[in-house]
Amino acid sequence: MCHLKALEKKELIIREPNMARAIQLTKQPISRSASASIGRLAGTDPMEVLDAGAQLDFAPLFEASDNFAVTVTGDLLSDFHVIDGDTLVLSRGKSARNGDIVLALVDDSSPVLQVYQKTGNQIQLEASKKTKAITGKDIQIVGKAVAVCEPHEEKWISSLSSE
Fold it and tell me: Between 36 and 84, whose confidence is greater?
C-alpha cells in the first residue's frame, strides 16, 4: 500500500480522483504523548495562567532511541517515591549525578535500581535509609531515571525527575 493510501485509510487526508497533487488534510493528528496544560502553580500561589490549548509534550521521553523502561518490583525505593508496580523510564548512559535513580551493575553482577551518591572517588548506591548502601570499585551505570510512571486507577501518571 502506498503512503498516500495509508493516510487516506486513516482518514487524515482526502485525495481528489483523477487529479495530480490534489490532497487535502481532513483533521490534525492527535498526539498520544501530549497532555493539556492548564497553568502553573508556585507553592501556595494560585494559578498564574490558564492556557487554553497549551500542551506539554512527553514524546521525547518515549521516542528517544536511548530511552528504555523497567517496572519496579518491591518497595525498596519507597523512600524516593518509587514503589512496586511503578515503571521507570531510563536514559541509557554511563554517568549520573548525586540523587539520580540509576540502573547499575555492581562487580559485573545482576542489575540493581539504586540512588547514586558520589563523594570524592567513592561511589555509593543506596535504596533506602533502612538498608546498607552498596559500595564497590566496579560500579557501571547503565542508565538513569528520567520519569516515573505510576499506575493509578488504571491510568498512568508520569512525573519527571529533577534535572
Answer: 84
